[in-house]
Every structure is written in structure tokens, then in C-alpha cells.
Amino acid sequence: MDRASDQAFNQSGELSDYNLFSTHSALVAACAREGAAAQHAALSALGERLGSAAMFALGDTANSNPPLLRVFDRFGARRDEVEFHPAWHELLGRLVAEGLHTGPWAEPCAGAHVARAAGYLMWAEIENGTQCPATMSYGAVPALKPQSGDFGVWLQLLMSRDYDPRFVPAADKRGVLMGMGMTERQGGSDVRANTTRAVAVGTPGPGREYRLTGHKWFFSAPMCDAFLVLAQAPRGLSCFLVPRFLPDRSVNGLKLQRLKDKLGNRSNASSEVEFADAWGLLVGEEGRGIPAILEMGVYTRLDNAIGSAGLMHQCTVQAIHHARGRHAFGRLLVEQPLMRNVLADLALESAAAVALVMRLARAFDAQDDEAAGLLRRLLTPVAKYWICKRAPAVCGEAMEVLGGNGYVEEGPIARRFREAPLNSIWEGSGNIMCLDVLRALAREPRTQDVLEELLAHTGSDDPRYHRFAAALSADLRAGAVAEARARELTQRIALAVQAAVLLADGPSAECEAFLASRLVSGAPAAFGTLPPGTDYEALIARCYTPQSP
Ligand SMILES: Cc1cc2nc3c(=O)[nH]c(=O)nc-3n(C[C@H](O)[C@H](O)[C@H](O)COP(=O)(O)OP(=O)(O)OC[C@H]3O[C@@H](n4cnc5c(N)ncnc54)[C@H](O)[C@@H]3O)c2cc1C
């Protein structure tokens, strides 16, 4: 006989086994708008694979079974290995097989970076730890491409779609992944404070051998096959490729000290490392380490913004799903006017994030275009700052939509909420991004022209938009902006570009709500404050439209 306490009713049920792409109209539209229409079918097939219950389960399993550091074997010999749960290897294998690490470099085509951005955004909805080695490998390619010498072999292996987890020399492997080491105990943002030293083994110069002594305080994905590492050489801060194995096949002097016990991103290992006479090759010129490693940083920062857009979207989708399946006070939550406002506001924030990251990704497809280069330079820190800042607020609000079920670990939100602040911290924290925006504007005066061109081509004559864009231009033209105002300025650029991209598709409920709320009233401190008359249903549907059975 059934007992009341064994019954579960008025619960929304699990949301999985759905297509992450075709149910997300804002993403489908962005791909078409930004030059990846031809990849629609491939992205839809990817969305189907990634949205499976098996993928959701793998993401949960990998994060509830964090990696373990094995410094020594049982006889006391040094190993410096990290052991991962099989779910991590399964996920990373699938990510690499999908080409979400270096696909656009291995198989360049029109819209390749935009299509990858869409795939990477969907991956972020499922699992985030595996994105760390993926994005560093994506960024390592442009950092190594201009170099001559022994780097070609590494480039070839980075392009592989075969994930090879074995701890063996790269020469024996079917494919490799790369990490990076910049942050030291005494300074992360200010890498000029780095104390790790590098000394040439013979003749110094690009592609030559050096020995490194020192440490890195954060060193993620330490089971990568090689790392781009900053160290002080006689001519200044320089960038080195440091592999896990030496050319003679012995293990290189990277001593893993311990793994960080992190708030989130628990599937991924983040270590502290000592370089004990570690062997490396100089990348670029001595003293030019910061520009060399920033070639990588531009891509990882793009990916931080895309990853946060994915997190926001998945949390919002889970909130919509819950509200459609849960009754309170005689109606479904989604039918309650105030809840509809909250959901629509979250959906709007998600759509605006998608619009900005996908527009930025398009600038990465136009590699040789000067204007696109200036746009990448400006909008990468803008998007990294603004979207990563919005993610914890969106994920937190989505959690509350699920009520108590949102706060418990077995639900879909808790892990993603713990993940949300990270993209804002690593790869250059919020203030560093905003100061970088000022630098981009000051160093190249054409940058503002390119921004204004983007803002001018909306086809809209909406006075609210034109007032906002004109005031931004006037402030920029007035000359140097004080450092203390850098966040305010960066936020205004982000909102203006988001509005411009949304308007480019013609008038819509989304545009109307964005102009009325974000441009007129400013970004909301709490969601659920869209003005009366907003078409809530339309905004929610753009974020998530369930497949018909
Ligand atoms: C999980 C995790 C994994 C990581 N993995 C790696 C990795 O693999 N490789 C790697 O190199 N690093 C890694 N990092 C380090 C990360 O990139 C740094 O933590 C980050 O860049 C900030 O540096 P910091 O911690 O030294 O803070 P600080 O540089 O001390 O900065 C502290 C705060 O001060 C602000 N600030 C700094 N300068 C200014 C200024 N001039 N004006 C105003 N505000 C300022 C910053 O924005 C920040 O909010 C990782 C970090 C985390 C959390």
C-alpha cells in the first residue's frame, strides 16, 4: 500500500535528454547572425549529444569525485601525477573528439570560431572543469604559431582530436593538451613581480633551451603535456614552453606540491608547483614574455565569457523548467506574474550575454581584418568583465526559483553556482579587465571609431538607444577616463554593444525589454524588475522552448 510520505508529487522532475542547441532560439539566431549558419545541422547534432542524461550524469560524477595528487609511489619514488575519476577522462575525451579545444585551428572554415563558441557555450552548461585545459590549448596555438623551430611538433599534436591521458613523453602520444603558469605567491595580476628565474643552457634566444627555477602558486590542469610559463631571464620577463618530459624521455623538474581545495571547478586539478631546474624552450624574444603569453590570454578570456554565458543559460533553463512543473497557491509558478517577471529578466540577461559573446567570436573569425582586430582587443576584456560579473547573480537568482531544491547538492544549480565566480577571477580579475579596456582605447585611437561603427549599424532609430550610444561616445571623445571610472565605462560599452547586436535582428520583445530596463533604468541589482507591458512569454521562449514529444 502506498504511503503518503513515499509519494513525490508537484515536483518538476529531471531536465535532461533534450537538445541544448535547438531549444535555445537566442543561440540559434546568434549563430546565423554571426556567420555560422552553415554549421546549424552540426551544432544541432552536437546539442543533442551534449544534452543527454549521460552527459549531465558525467558532469556531476566528475565533480563529486575530485582528482588526487600522487606525489610519491609506495616505495618513495617521486611521481608527481594526478589521478582523475574515469568520468573526467570520459568527458575530456569527448570534448577533444568534438574539436572544442582547437577545432577552428585544425579545420579552419568560415564561421569556425563562432561555431566553436556555440559548442563551447553548450559544453559549459554540462561541465566546466574540462574547459580549463581545453581553453588553454585553444590559446596555445596562436601563441606558438608565429614561432619557428621545435614548436611545430607541438602544434600538430594540439590539433589532434584524440585525447591521450597517458603520462608519457609527447613524442609517444596521439594528441596533447597545454596549460599555463603565470601566477606566483607574491603576485598574479602584476606578473612583473614574478621571481621564477630562467637561465640559458647554451646560446640564448628564441627556441633555445633554458633552465627554470622557482614556483607557480596556481598551476591548473597539471597533467597537461606542456605549459607556457613566465620567468625572469637576463633581458626580462620571458615566456617558455615547459614540457612534462625532457627530450631524453626523463621526467622534467616540475614538482607538484599540493592541489588547491577549491570552492568549485572541482573536477579539475589546480596545483602549486616548484620548478627544480626545469627544462624549457624560449617562446619569442627574451623580455617579451607578457605579449607572448597574452596571445594565449586573449583566447582564454573569450572562453571565460562564453563559459559564463553557458552557465547563466543552463541555470535559467533549469529555473524555467522548474517553474513550469511546480504549483504554488493554485497556479503553476510560471503563471504567477511576479515569477514570470523574474524568469523573463533572467532570460533577457542570458540572451544579451549570448549576443555579446557570439558577436565577439565573429571578430576571431576575421583574423586578418584590422577593424576586427581592434574590436577583439577592446571587446574581449569588456565581455570577460561584464558577463563573468553577471553570472553569479544570474545563477543565484535561478537557484531561488527552485526554492529549497535549488540549494541542495543533488539539484542542478548548486554545482553551477559554485562555479560561477571563477571566470571573473582567473585570467585577469574584474579590475584588471577594466583597466585593460582603458589601455585598449588609449593605445589605438582607431579603436573608438571601430566601436562607433558597430554601434551605428543597428538599423534602429530608437531614441533610447541613440541617446545611450551618443552619451558613451561623447564621454570617450572627451579624453582619458579616470581609472576609478573604468568599471562604469566598461559596463556602458558592454550594454551598448549588447543593445546594438540585439537591435540588428529588428524590433522584438527582447530589444524592447533590454532598452527599457538595461539602457534606461541601468542593469538591475535584482532580477524581476522588467517594466509593465513586457512580453514575458516571448523572452522565456527565446531562452528555452521544450521539444515537442
Ligand atoms: C581555480 C583557479 C585556478 C587558477 N589557475 C591558474 C593557472 O593555471 N595558471 C595561472 O597562471 N594562474 C592561475 N590562477 C590564478 C589567477 O589567474 C589569479 O588568481 C588572478 O589572476 C588574480 O591574481 P592574484 O590571485 O595574485 O590576485 P591579485 O593580483 O593580488 O589581485 C587581487 C585583487 O586586486 C585587484 N587588482 C590588482 N591590481 C589592481 C589595480 N592596479 N587596480 C585595481 N585593482 C587591482 C584584482 O583585480 C583582484 O581583484 C588560478 C586561479 C584560480 C582561482
- Radius of gyration, in Å, reads 24 Å
Q: What fraction, in percent, of the residue positions are helical?
A: 40-55%
**What average pLDDT do the residues reach?**
96
Oligomeric state: single chain
Ions, cofactors and other ligands present here are: flavin-adenine dinucleotide
CATH class value of the domain at 291-549: Mainly Alpha
Write the layout of secondary structure elements.
Layout: H1 25-33, H2 40-50, H3 53-64, E1 68-72, E2 78-83, H4 86-97, H5 103-106, H6 112-126, H7 131-144, H8 151-158, E3 178-181, E4 197-200, E5 209-220, E6 226-233, E7 236-243, E8 254-259, E9 270-283, H9 289-325, E10 327-328, E11 331-332, H10 337-365, H11 370-401, H12 404-407, H13 414-419, H14 422-425, H15 430-443, H16 446-456, H17 463-477, H18 486-503, H19 509-521, H20 536-543
Parallel strand pairs: 3-6
Antiparallel strand pairs: 1-2, 4-5, 5-9, 6-7, 7-9, 8-9, 10-11
Helix pairs in contact: 1-10, 2-6, 3-4, 6-9, 6-10, 7-8, 7-9, 9-10, 9-11, 10-11, 10-18, 10-20, 11-15, 11-16, 11-18, 15-18, 16-18, 17-18, 18-19
This protein binds flavin-adenine dinucleotide.
The site of flavin-adenine dinucleotide (FAD) has 24 residues, from β3, β5, α14 and α15.
